Each structure stands twice: as C-alpha cells, then as structure tokens.
C-alpha cells in the first residue's frame, strides 16, 4: 500500500479583476490569415477591463496576437494567453473602459 501526505499548491491569482458574464457576439481577426485563418465570429463568454474568455469557431493558439471587434467597443488588440479546442483566454493590450465592460455585461442580462 502507498500513502502520502500532500498540501494543495497555492496558485497565485493572475486575474486582475472580477469577470462579468457577457455572452455577446464579436469578431476575431487573427491578423495573419495564413497562420490562423480568416476573420470569424466568436462569443465573448465573460469579460473584465483586462481581458476576456472567447468561445470560437476556429481554434486559436496560445501566444497569438488578435484583433477583437466588440459591439460598441471598436477594435481591441489582445494576446491569447491560453487556448483549448474552441475556447481561449485573452489579455487586452490596453485596458477597456469600465463603462464598456458594464454595457457588455448588461447585454447578457
């Protein structure tokens, strides 16, 4: 028989703000169509002023630089910090205005 004691690893919280559910349709432009494909629609699952979670129809790669067109928010530059299948977490190069995040969250309700 094997027995061991362990302590759960403490994970440093990397998110800088609380997520707000959004559920809005946006457009993602991977910038380099030869690498990641053409512009496509996506769904912003949740959002903060610093980043968002995307549900996409085209797989994105970790480390990719993208342009995200948000409804009423214009085009936002972001980096993909994690990706699996058709979900991706992005960090915005410049933080969004809180008013835009609030407006997108309100569309979800």
From TrEMBL:
- Domain named PilZ: residues: 14-103
Among Pfam families, the record links this protein to: PilZ
Traced from the root, the source organism's taxonomic lineage reads: Bacteria, Pseudomonadati, Pseudomonadota, Alphaproteobacteria, Sphingomonadales
From what superkingdom does this record's organism come? Bacteria
Protein name, entry field: PilZ domain-containing protein
- What are the start and end residues of every segment in region (Disordered)? 1-22
């Amino acid at each position: 028989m094997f027995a061991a004691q362990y302590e759960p690893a403490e994970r440093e919280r990397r998110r800088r703000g609380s997520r707000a559910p959004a559920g809005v349709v946006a457009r993602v432009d991977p910038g380099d169509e030869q690498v990641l494909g053409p512009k496509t629609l996506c769904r912003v699952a949740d959002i903060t002023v610093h980043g968002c979670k995307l549900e996409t129809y085209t797989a994105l790669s970790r480390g990719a630089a993208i342009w995200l067109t948000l409804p009423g928010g214009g085009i936002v530059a972001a980096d993909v910090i994690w990706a699996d299948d058709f979900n991706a977490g992005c960090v915005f190069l410049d933080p969004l205005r809180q008013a835009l995040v609030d407006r997108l969250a309100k569309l979800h309700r």
